[in-house]
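**Polypeptide and fold**
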Amino acid sequence: MSLADDLRMTGAPNMNLSEPITSVVTTLEGQAFRVLAHTTEPLTGSAIARLSGSGSTVGMRLALARLVENGVVDVRKVGPSLVYTANRDHVMWPVIEALVSSADSAMERLQAAVVNSLEMQDSDSISVRDISLAFFGSVARGESTAASDVDVLMILPSMTIDEVTAPLVDIVSSTIARATGNVCNVYCLTREQLTELIARNDAMIASWLADARTFNGSDVKRLIRTLSSARTGDRL
């Protein structure tokens, strides 16, 4: 049984890759930190709620009130409104800033972890640089939640044998599952198989053209367009 199967059976907690900070600070305080850490401009509660993209204005104002009470956020009245700024003199602010920075780079570090894991695979039959890897679906669009699986497209060079393919798929899925707690679905195919999907106008092609986010190897969107153009040229 794979790690992905284990996660499905146990209902293990997942990471929201669109909002990584929620893995550590699950309340709206984390979203307030994320917004205030990126600016020194005073912001209203409604502006912070809008920029965070999470929760209601009322909920954000309650979260900000708790942070003001704890001293990590300053508040003052400007006209009829209350505006908030981070208290960068607070002794805990460096920790908060480090947390926000870590959350901001979470996707980049996840991508690096996947590539590094593949590079550690001892295989003379395929080079990691020849493998295209891309996120697609809700994670790629930045619309995922803690309940979302992580969808990865893996495009391998021509004539890749199953004995090589299976370990690579397992490495990608297990690395992402271990790093995030999320179930990872790897859609693996060769360039010939990708060409066949293009020829059939498979719905997945439109999906990948819309939101595939390549992080290793040849860019997936460019590859699909190149293969599509080659087919068009062959018919002329």
Remarks:
- Residues 162-180 form the longest helix (19 residues).
- The beta strands are 43-44, 73-78, 81-86, 132-136, 150-156, 184-190, 213-216.
